[in-house]
């Protein structure tokens, strides 16, 4: 199987040319940030409940070309959306749900057609919130892989991370991957008001080629699982290359505009609260990761069905991840004979 290279030289050069047109600078001065999209075998509504998730990045995503601006101006254009985004880094950014922000004309939601620059403003907000001083802005052009924005591949996290990395580079800031995961959380949770977890930006920042990233969202510990040992296009130890199938429903939506997501977060927390209170653990943080299976079995009859249906789904999803990791380890380490025996053991 031929592994396609992303981004291609042509894609990078096209972005650089747009930045030169915008800034009047030299093409050699244009800096590039590449921020990939991700898939997650296990993730939906598990990360914000402190569960164990898995993800890996793919060879599609965001390209952001930029030149630092000494006057602190941020000027952005997009390959997907019309209009320019313009603001200064020395202006304090406020959460979009705040009264002051609404009085200044910011809407509660991030309307991608009218204000696609909300993630750039959110990146400035996050850096300001953590005490980073920004002197320089950026003149930049951002674009995503065709047709994949708002399609469930965490394009929003890729965009947020791209803006953070560009602003940090322009201002000579040294920021760790762990801190950038937290900064992107501030963009989503505080600036935009979306109550999601840390899976998406963790996948963007921590993934490695050929590996599945596994993270405990409660402890924030992670490790990389290499399911297949591959070298180029060659088969090694009898294992062939693999492909990822993306099945697009044709429907797009941005989570920041979807109130149903925050409602599901509240439902998960309410289910956890009811179970913990029933077991005498009302002081424990109401997250489903803090509910023992024995607590669930003992007290599930007292929890409304609309909430209780969430718990077994999360448990089954976690078991699915364990199965994936076990079979991947078996395929990577075992002989053909032992693989067959172990497979029957775990599947039977």
TrEMBL record:
Keyword Transferase attributed: yes
EC number, as in UniProt: 2.7.1.44
Keywords: Transferase
Enzyme class of the recorded protein, top EC level: transferase
Superkingdom of origin: Eukaryota
Official protein name in the record: Galacturonokinase protein
Protein source organism: Dioscorea alata (Purple yam)
